[in-house]
């Protein structure tokens, strides 16, 4: 027999029972929450982002840390700086002396000997040239044989060869003297001494040994972000980036950048064509000239850690949750789709576009 409402008349106790108020309220709250969640997933926009970690870097190579190296081998005789000291351009850093303390004096003596040799050869060559002239005159008068003229010319040629050899020796001596004069190592640029290789004090160094590191006090900063290869294909120069600097108080909402606090703006400058050893791709970020400036260099020094979010397409929250659960890549932008359609010929671009929509959109 089917159930009918009048059957409750036979069960007055059951008919008088009511659901607890807490259960009714809870049921209504659950229903409202489900309805609100559905509305949020369908109508609330979400900004897709390709996030990555990185650090503050110097865009100009002259603003980066520079190693000061020994130009010649020798022994560290004296240091002129210490850690943390400010230095100017060409300010002495250290003095390297040759292992032979009499080396410079011997070079000077050898140079003087070669100069005397050059003077002697020059005089001999001039005398030989006079002999050639006299022999030529006598040969034209028929007083001597042609062989005597040729022998005189050979002496002139030999003198020229000796003169060239002596000048080459003198040049080599000058090069050695110039190298010894560069034993006073100087700062290549203005900045602060970050480290001094004090372990080399009094020790023997070879040419190219790093003596100290100089870091400029001012720098044109940029940010190097490292992005996963899944999303790097969608990163393009000029895209907007949100940055959170290490040590700077910030609250970031990835999908709603308008409500973030303490976040700074940037623009994609360039990206590497190949990945690094970690498998991530480096993206160079410049400050956005239209936004507020980045924190002062005192607060965000070179090498400070940064977290960034490269902004992509705006999609519904529900689609973003579905994409994250399925681990799909970000959406292709409209500009990128247009560029792909313009470059490909035939139906290739349309086929690729259809494939993207098929893989990236929920059924």
What is shown here, in short?
The chain is 37% helix and 25% strand. It contains seven helices and 14 strands.
Average pLDDT, rounded to a whole number, is: 78
Question: How far from one another are the termini?
Answer: 45 Å
Helical content band: 25-40%
Could you tell me the radius of gyration in angstroms? 41 Å
Q: What structural class is derived from the secondary structure elements?
A: alpha+beta
Count of DSSP helices? Answer: 7
Order of neighbouring strands in the sheet with most strands: 1-10-13-12-11-14
pLDDT under 50 segments (min length 5)? 344-363
Oligomer: single chain
Q: Give the biggest beta sheet.
A: 6 strands, antiparallel, barrel
Q: What is the string of SSEs from the N terminus onward?
A: HHEEEEEHHEEEEEEEEEHHH
How many distinct beta strands? Answer: 14
- Given the C-alpha coordinates, what overall shape results? elongated
Which percent band covers the strand fraction?
Answer: 15-25%
